[in-house]
Amino acid sequence: MDNGNVTVSIANNIATIEFYHPKSNSLPGAILKKLADTITETGKNSEAKIIILKSGGEKAFCAGASFDELVAITDFNTGKKFFLGFAYVINAIRTCPKFVISRIQGKVVGGGVGIASASDYALAHQSSSIKLSELAIGIGPFVVGPAVERKIGTGAFSTLSIDADWRTAKWTKQYGIYKDIYETHDQLDQAVSLLAKRLASFSSEAMADMKKVLWEGTEHWDELLEKRAEISGRLVLTEHTKNAIAQFKAK
């Protein structure tokens, strides 16, 4: 648990995938890979008709990239490989034949915003503000960008990326990343459960076809997100970014 983990359980045709890391559910490379693989494998499991994606605890949903791993990157290939981790998770959700419902219980940063945006349906607690902080440290939200822009549009994505500031859950709902927000975690859990149970009664074939329709035009994302990972992998080696990450970790 000190290094984080990913678990999956299936009951009544509903799969629940949970990721966890003790540092505000930040995501090191190993957890990203396991999360992507688990989503892909669960998508092939005939016992599951719907996937709920959640993270551990009641604080941050996801703090984005692991700064411990970011600061340790010393070459381009390692940097590209790390950022591909987020690409693999986003593409796993995109290509999964089952709807992925995200339960967002708290703040969402960087790569976590990409995961929330890639989800087919996201329900959130009222504390679930979001922030794309990458540009502030000299990287930019390149890998998660396509998923976020697809969900909220170019104008809102531009604003979110450039000023790298927090946006409230209400703002996030307004622009379509969240479908609804709730005052308590109990209300959030009830809403997620109710939706999942309802969808689990639907036709798997119809939902799979509907998902293909909803994701039309993204068939090139395997290549696109790899190119975006190369940009981030190059920028993470710059002196500016190294200094910015070191200052952040020193706080």
Write a structural description.
This protein has 251 residues and is α/β, with parallel strands linked by helices. It is globular, with a radius of gyration of 17 Å. The two termini are 25 Å apart. The mean pLDDT is 95. The protein has helices spanning 29-44, 67-72, 76-95, 111-118, 145-152, 154-163, 169-174, 185-200, 204-214, 221-235, 239-250, and strands at 5-11, 14-20, 50-55, 100-104, 108-109, 121-125, 130-131, 180-182. The relative contact order is 0.15. It has a single domain, classed as 2-enoyl-CoA Hydratase, Chain A, domain 1. The longest helix has 20 residues, at 76-95. A six-stranded mixed sheet has the order 1-2-3-4-6-8, with helices on both faces. Strands 5-7 form a two-stranded parallel sheet.
Tally of distinct domains: 1
| Percent strand | 5-15%
Number of helices: 11
The percent of residues in helical segments reads 40-55%
State the CATH superfamily name: 2-enoyl-CoA Hydratase, Chain A, domain 1
Any chance you could write out the topology, listing elements then pairs?
Elements: E1 5-11, E2 14-20, H1 29-44, E3 50-55, H2 67-72, H3 76-95, E4 100-104, E5 108-109, H4 111-118, E6 121-125, E7 130-131, H5 145-152, H6 154-163, H7 169-174, E8 180-182, H8 185-200, H9 204-214, H10 221-235, H11 239-250
Parallel strand pairs: 2-3, 3-4, 4-6, 5-7, 6-8
Antiparallel strand pairs: 1-2
